[in-house]
Amino acid sequence: MRHFLVAEARPGAVLDIAGPDYHYLVRVLRLRPGAVIPVADAAGRRARATVSDTGGGRVRLHVGTDRPAPSAPLSAPAVTLVQALPKGALMDRIVRQATELGAVRIVPVVSERTQGRAGPDADARRRRRWQRIARQAAQQSGSEPPPIDLPQPLHRYLERAELDGLGLLFQYGAAPLPAAQPGPETAALHRPPAVRCAVGPEGGFSPAETALLGDRGFYPVGLPGGVLRVDTAVVAALTAVRQFLASVPES
After folding, report:
1. Residue 163's pLDDT is what?
2. Predicted TM-score (pTM) of this structure
């Protein structure tokens, strides 16, 4: 575990952790009194906490008063995943993998080919589950859990979003990064301030949706190999973006 996220982890605080987090710390990590673990509060400030008790269905943590020296901030662009909802529980896996790969925001969108569309109550429940998954993945990987939007139609997201930086539409058959070079207006030869990666559902985005994404500044790019599963495509896309960004200079 890189760090345990708990919003109230103020220096000197004494915290009682119960519920699923108790199970994770005691049953999965097998922490015992005397163990020291890294913790992070809601603002991402980190400290070390000592386990003093694990009885009664709760873990008692004593947060230390010293904080590790902050590391130098990274200039990596913020990467947002715009993901068309896949079928079944694949979105759970996508949220976990995107969090581990450093996505700073996840935008689930409903496309024409999305299967099993849900109502507002179900969407709210799904987002709460995705937020829990992202939090668990962040604790394991050391990244920050990204905010996750409520599912919304693709056209609504494109109408409302501030689409700054570079937009990439991952599409089978298109030229892969870095061979695909957008026009000079996107400053392709320099690192963009932000990147938005759009990945379709099973069967991809419809022709109308592809055209709409293109109108909103998303450039089609492909991935090596054949047709990939949606969750595999997300990993390949985010990995390709990281490699591409590492190869271009800052503007």
Report:
1. 76
2. 0.70
